[in-house]
């Protein structure tokens, strides 16, 4: 797929098929995240966790639904990329770098015929809590890593059609 087509298909999708994503495709999205530019080349302070375990995803959803009273924060996606910072990352660029990593993953997901959505609400809820999460320790992540952003990915429940790029953002020259 050429880049213009990727851009015309890229959008946030919140309904996914109940279908597993092959490891080969997951690896391509991981690679896209790994190839992201990071401010001041601070790569050592960022990591990507891949969540495909349905029990962990169910626990994440149940925990967040209990806190917020809203629906599943990852929209029943079979795959979630958790973008993390590590102790020592520069505070003023963590969200920016996490967003850049996320967008690379989104673009590759689109390129592969998958759908995705940025997810932050459950991470914000994690950061605002005093008690520990029930699902995060089960991931057995190295100490010192903190979730900053997430991307939920899956096969779209409905067909995604190309849309022409419309100028919606003011540009000043």
From TrEMBL:
Pfam families in the record: Nitroreductase
Entry's PANTHER family? NAD(P)H NITROREDUCTASE YDGI-RELATED, NITROREDUCTASE
Identify this protein by name.
Nitroreductase
By sequence similarity, the record places it as follows: Belongs to the nitroreductase family.
Q: Which residues form the Nitroreductase domain?
A: 10-155
Cite the GO molecular-function annotations of the record. oxidoreductase activity
| Swiss-Prot/TrEMBL cofactor(s) | FMN
Q: Which UniProt keywords apply?
A: Flavoprotein, FMN, Oxidoreductase
Superkingdom is Bacteria
